[in-house]
Amino acid sequence: MTRIRNLTFGIVAVIGSILVGCAFFQQVLPGLTLSDANVVGLLDSIDEGEMDAAQLAQTRASDPDVQAFAGRVLNEHRDLAEANGRLAAQLSLEPERPSLASHLKQTHEQAMRNLRAMSGAAFDRAYVRYEIQQHVQAFNVLEAAAESEDNVTLKQELVRTGPDLLSHISAARALERHLGSEQRPAIASP
């Protein structure tokens, strides 16, 4: 039980550092703009991380609903990654990953190490929490990028992607409630 608590604490710490890093990034560098190539590179990084976590969940999750969610996330982020490739070709640019993408990748790799150390219901809950955090973070990044984007085509793609991420957040939150209800003991009738 102590090991599970330590792993859960580790995942929470990693997620917290991602959010603090993004808040720090926004506060310290509010005037920093990303090039179109940086935005597409960041989208690629987000999709790669989501596909990586979903592939792990498909093999590790013990709950069939978590496995199904992971399959959905995997398929939809594959589609988004392909759309990013088409977008880069349409804009005649080569995606370039900004330094923020490197930070996100490092924290993702740490979270994946923590997830790989888990199994069963603990894995299911940790994966779903991680997906909620990742999708909220990705939505916030997309929203901020769309607000400052001058390229109409890229802005439209960012705006179009937002509802997909919100749908994943909604599904993950429903799963979180489902998984939470399974760990509550049944109350016996008098």
Outline the secondary-structure elements:
Blueprint: H1 2-28, H2 36-60, H3 64-90, H4 99-116, H5 120-148, H6 152-182
Helix pairs in contact: 1-4, 1-5, 2-3, 2-4, 2-5, 3-6, 5-6
The CATH architecture would be Up-down Bundle
Distance between the termini: 31 Å
The average pLDDT score comes to: 82
> With helices defined by DSSP (H or I, 4 residues minimum), what is the helix count?
6
Radius of gyration: 18 Å
Note the beta-strand portion: under 5%
Helix content: over 70%
Provide the low-confidence segments as ranges.
1-22, 24-31, 183-190
**CATH homologous superfamily annotation:** Ferritin, core subunit, four-helix bundle
What does this structure look like?
By secondary structure, the chain is mainly alpha-helical. Helices cover 83% and strands 0% of the residues. It contains six helices and no strands. The protein has helices at 2-28, 36-60, 64-90, 99-116, 120-148, 152-182. Helix 1 (2-28) runs parallel beside helix 5 (120-148). It is elongated, with a radius of gyration of 18 Å. Mean pLDDT is 82; it is low at 1-22, 24-31 and 183-190.
Keywords:
190 residues; mainly alpha; Ferritin; elongated; disordered N terminus
